[in-house]
Amino acid sequence: MKKLIVANWKMNPKTSDEARKLFLGIEHRMHFFNDKAQVVLCPPFIYLPQLSLYSHHIRLGAQNLHAKDSGAFTGEVSVAQLSGLRVTHVILGHSERRIYFGETDSQVREKIEAALRHKMIPVVCLGGDPKASKGTMKRLVTKQFKAAVNGLDKKLVGKIIFVYEPIWAISTFKNAEPATGEHAAELTLHIRDLLEKIVGTVHAANMPILYGGSVNKANVHEFSKFPTIDGALVGAASLDSDNFMTVVKEFHRESIHKT
Ligand code: 13P
Known about the structure:
By secondary structure, the protein is α/β, with parallel strands linked by helices. Helices cover 41% and strands 15% of the residues. The protein is built from eleven helices and eight strands. An eight-stranded parallel β-barrel has the order 1-2-3-4-5-6-7-8, surrounded by five helices. The longest helix is centred in the last third of the chain and has 19 residues, at 181-199. It is globular. 42% of the residues are buried. 1,3-dihydroxyacetonephosphate is lined by residues 8, 94, 165, 170-172, 212-215, 233-237.
């Protein structure tokens, strides 16, 4: 399985010119790594049409979608509209959506189904609840996982990419600190156990499960060295192409090392 590194640019950068430069700084270097690593880059919606013209090695993802295909939903973007822009992935259930926009588990579940209906791959974040402490993450992840897959056909569950992204590790949150590699490995393994019960051991072993939260060039090895962590969801460090490419390189190196 290729390592997967997903860049979440959040509401950055400020101009389309900066977005193009940043994108090309990654795209132009990806041919060295795309044998063993896949990058999915999730910019703000408005940059997607432009960036889709330049993407060859990089796949494009959205940061959100609306579960309905069309209708009177001011300010929203549907999965049907995104599919036309060569968008293959969408981040769902992110902590910031849950906290600042009040997204509930059942809304996340609806969005997952909408994405899958259009053959878009949901990248589903687990761990985003400000009330959860480090000691209760396993319980929270289990609850959010069960809500995310509730009633979904197992074939569809098998297409979801899960990310363990504990809210307290996201660099922009107050007093943020990255998880330890051991903790991230334990929780990603826990997610794989949950998946095994639905899709079976063989399929679950081939599903990428990522870690997110303050991953950058300085600490990436702490996560990439664990075989149960198949990649990363990267926020702040993805806004600097050198920093981000070091994260990609490190996962690529581990992948070569282990095959
Ligand atoms: P940071 O990498 O800045 O901690 O952001 C993580 C994140 O929220 C990615 O979705």
